[in-house]
Amino acid sequence: MDTSTQHKAMDNNNPSALHITNDxxxxxxxxxxxxxxxxxxxxxxxxxxxxVIGSGVLSLAWAIAQLGWIAGPAVLMTxxxxxxxxxxxxxxxxxxxxxxxxxxxxxxxxxxxxxxxGKGAKLCGIAQYVNLVGVTIGYTITASISIVAxxxxxxxxxxxxGAHCQPxxxxxxxxxAIIQIVLSQIPNFHKLSWLSILAAVMSFAYSLIGLGLSxxxxxxxxEKTTLTGTExxxxxxxxxxxxxxxxxxxxxxxxxxxxxxxxxxQDTLKSYPPENKMMKRASLAGVSVTTLFYILCxxxxxxxxxxxxxxxxxxxxxxxxxxxxxxIANVCIAIHLIGxxxxxxxxxxGFVEMKCKQKWPESKFITREHAINVPCCGExxxxxxxxxxRTAYVTLTALIAMIFPFFNSFLGLIGAGSFYPLTVYxxxxxxxxxxxxxxxxxxxxxxxxxxxxxxxxxxxxxxGSIQGLLSDLKKYKPFKTE
Length: 482
Known about the structure:
The protein is an all-alpha fold. It is built from 16 helices and 4 strands. The longest helix has 42 residues, at 118-159.
């Protein structure tokens, strides 16, 4: 069957699509009358890699050090399998009731509303948007730490490893926020493919640099490692071991957090081939690549640093030389997180702006678009409400990051809080409802066992991360530098 025949076959199942396709005046519109999407599984994979291979990879050596050689890789692989499995269930929920010809749902909340009703959508919205806000705060923290690490690396190189090199993070959080305020004026997710591809390249770059430095350190001599990770009595107390183990599980959960934006990513894909098939291909590619990197970075990083692995293996100064290569890696982290921040905040922007337009459709402040010619960029759309609201959001996340700049504990809490509801619970419940799985059937029972097991794991990880945050807060004074 040639391409034109395939398109006709698909359009015959969708009268509105047939009408739009045959009308040359509407050739730039999609099957639902919206702007035509141009994304492919390659661009979707780039979005996924941008969202997944983020700051989570930096803490994996520390997480493996808490869990050891047996539990560490096992937890990593388990999270990757669960994430891929549930992402396939979520991809099939994008159109309803049929995953190929049904009505499009543009956000995670829309998907849940179509399958589980209004109450489920409200719970999903709370979980999703709280998580997205948390991720953007976490990325502000991590980006500033990486920029500061460049200054510290050069300071150590010039003055020696024992020098007091502790520049403040706050100016760099402010710089990161200014960059995000500018980028946030990009109207929607569909215009961000170039930024995600750049960010994905950066994530590969710093992961490979970190991996290469770890391998070089291993060749120079392996540090003490154990099957169960950090040792009680020698490295830490029994209670600290338990809390840090729980926190490590949360860090690994955070490293796989992209379900929060999966539907928004899928909504960038062209309507043909079917979005669910392309999204499954993109998820397989994205999760496979990231799992390989995670296993390598986590395990080789643990071998390099042993039970004393730093919380962030590129900014915790397990490496001092070559300082220029460490600088490049940290610049790559900062560039990557600039793009990743946008991937996670665009759904928030879109949701708030859609609700405001629905509530105040006559407000010119909210609805009026102005065309502005920008040199080298062409004509861009500008909106006053978008400028004010998005600037306020970025500023608020930067302020919260300045008050709570705790890398590992914050990442663990975000991962624990989002993994169960968004990556496991809603995809499974929507599949059961859509496929009409009978209660107490074999499929129903094992899906429920998986769901409840993940709930327990998330609660345990959240407990460990909260304890870590409380410990950090006891000895921290906001807006002061040691």
